[in-house]
Specification:
The protein is an alpha/beta fold. The protein is built from eight helices and seven strands. It has helices at residues 5-18, 22-36, 52-57, 73-85, 123-135, 157-169, 174-187, 193-202, and strands at residues 42-46, 65-69, 92-95, 110-114, 142-147, 205-214, 217-224.
C-alpha cells in the first residue's frame, strides 16, 4: 500500500479510530519486550510508519537502540519529527527501505512488525517478509507481530456493523465511513490465526503466544528458533 503525504499525516488518527485499543497494543508489546530483553538491546521496527511503536517501546527500555525501516519517505519524515520531539533521535536510526534490502549484520535482539502484514496479498510475499526479519535476529530473539482484519469479515454483518459504529462514535460521518470501508476492503487482505501460526513456524519462529485481540485485530509474540 502506497502512503502519500496526506495519508501519512492522518495515519495515527485513523489507526486509533479503526483499532480500539491501539495504544494498549503498543503498551503491551512494550511490556513483553521489557520482560524478555536486557537493559541494553537493539530493536528492529519493520514498517515503522510514523514511529509510534518506537515512542511507546522506548518507555520500557531506557537504553534500547532502535532501527526503523519503512519504504514510505512521507511516513519516515513524520516519524523523524516525532522522535526528535520525544528526545529519541539519538537512540534511533531510520531508513527508507524494505527489510530485504537491509544488511544481514549485525543481528538484532528483537523485532516488531505492527499492522503491516495484512497489506500484503500473496502468501509467499508474507512468508518472505517474515523470513527476512528472522534472518536479522539473534537466536531466541522475541518478535512482535500485529495483524488487522483477523479473518475474512466481509460476510459478518454483526462485526462489520459494530466496527462501523465504532467509527461513528468517533465523529466520522456515515458517508466517510462507507468510503473508508470500501477502500479498506480493496487494499487489505485478511489472515486467519491458523495462517499466522503456519507462517511464523515456516519463517523459523516458535513459542508463539497471542497477547492481544480487539474486534478485528490480533497480536502475537514469538521467538526466533535457537
Amino acid at each position: 500500500m502506497k502512503f502519500d503525504e496526506e495519508l501519512a499525516r492522518i495515519y495515527d488518527q485513523y489507526a486509533r479510530i479503526s483499532l480500539p485499543g491501539y495504544d494498549a497494543l503498543h503498551e503491551l508489546a512494550g511490556c513483553l519486550l521489557g520482560s524478555l530483553l536486557k537493559e541494553s538491546a537493539s530493536v528492529l521496527a519493520v514498517g515503522v510508519g510514523t514511529g509510534q511503536e518506537i515512542i511507546t517501546l522506548s518507555q520500557y527500555g531506557s537504553h534500547w537502540q532502535f532501527t526503523g525501516l519503512d519504504p514510505s519517505a512521507e511516513m519516515l519524515q513524520i516519524a523523524s519529527m516525532r522522535l526528535l520531539q520525544e528526545g529519541l533521535k539519538d537512540r534511533t536510526k531510520l531508513m527508507s527501505c524494505f527489510v530485504t534490502d537491509f544488511p544481514l549484520e549485525p543481528l538484532f535482539d528483537a523485532s516488531t512488525l505492527m499492522l503491516v502484514i495484512h497489506f500484503i496479498h500473496e502468501r509467499n510475499a508474507r512468508l518472505e517478509l517474515l523470513r527476512d526479519i528472522s534472518l536479522r535476529l539473534k537466536p531466541n530473539a522475541p518478535f512482535i507481530l500485529a495483524a488487522g482484519l483477523f479473518g475474512d469479515l466481509r460476510g459478518d454483518s454483526v462485526l462489520i456493523d459494530a466496527w462501523k459504529m465504532r467509527w461513528a462514535s468517533q465523529g466520522i460521518s456515515r458517508q466517510e465511513i462507507e468510503t473508508r470501508f470500501q477502500e479498506m476492503f480493496s487494499s487489505v487482505y485478511p489472515l486467519s490465526e491458523t495462517e499466522v501460526l503456519e507462517l511464523l513456524n515456516e519463517a523459523g519462529f516458535h513459542q508463539v503466544r497471542r497477547f492481544f485481540t480487539s474486534l478485528t485485530f490480533s497480536a502475537w509474540v514469538a521467538q526466533k528458533g535457537g
